[in-house]
Design goal:
single chain, about 375 residues, alpha/beta, Rossmann fold, 2 domains, six-stranded mixed beta sheet, five-stranded parallel beta sheet, 15 helices, 11 strands
Length: about 375
Amino acid sequence: MTTSRSPLAGGPLDAYQALLEGGEIRPDAAQERAVGKLQDLHTELADYAPHAGKKGWMARLGLVAGRTQPPRGLYIYGGVGRGKSMLMDLFFARAPVEERKHVHFHAFMLEVHERIYNFRRAVKAGKAPESADPLVALARVITDKARLLSFDEFHVSDIADAMILGRLFEALFDAGVVVVTTSNRPPQDLYKGGLQRDRFLPFIELIEQKLDVLELDGDADHRLAAMRLIDTYRVPAGPESGAELEKYFARLILGASPAPKRLTIAGREVHIPRAAEGVAFADFADLCGQPLGAADYLAVAKRFHTLVLSGIPRLGPNHHNEAKRFVILIDALYEHKVNLICSADAAPEEIYAEGTGAFEFGRTVSRLNEMQSETYMATEHIR
């Protein structure tokens, strides 16, 4: 994508209206207000030429047309199922900025911690000066690659993250980076009740200075409405169930383009074949046929609010390892209130009736049954 095209052509507003006209989403006044703000930002970005960065000297000499002051970013917050991720995807996919990055906030913070760790190792090895500030260096790395940063599910629950964010984002904003993010909570509620929260308050003020805050209000839970139309546990697994899972997945991602995702956990990678809009699609073999553990499944549960899992087999005594992994996976999904849509060769009670740990599998059976209830599906995803 280039900035030479019309800022209105193919913007988020056109994309949103196409979804409405196609019957893929229903009219929602709050969403329409939000997409209007995103369209305004889309237009401003088309005319934005930041001073800093690769084209900075041209901008300073007046050789690049357009505004040099960054437009205000946007902080969209609201409850579960309000369509925040959908609107973000519509905006980001059509943003008239080539240097841009869209990432889940949890994944972003993992990358930040890893880069800080590597920088400190470089200092110890004499490859970087001790006086260097790793956050300033990290901000420089980010701004070299992205002038627009889009985050899904912005939240802060860790004291280390809270201490990092203020300095890092101040450097990013000083470099002219525009930030657009979604969250379940308003900025004032970030890290609420956290340890030494008073030291985090200047960051909240910075967010409110640099971003317009917009509540995606209303009572409609579009995610739950979609889930009500889905047979969340299909038996038996096979071509017919597989085709239905594909339809469910397409319905839940609202026209987004799914792509493979790799989650990094302590130097290892968990491969998710397809994901979009916070929904992951994988086969049983992808997640339970591999040597994965609790930390891996926890990362999946934190990252995605819905998992579409195909081909759960009937397990026997020779499948103890697969059964054990499946138990750990379901525990992680249940504890983080992840919606599960799956196909299986048997009812929950018959998946693992014999073998080591079959008695303990009863808890998994109970959870699988509860996860099909509307009460469970209406519960907010816990990251």
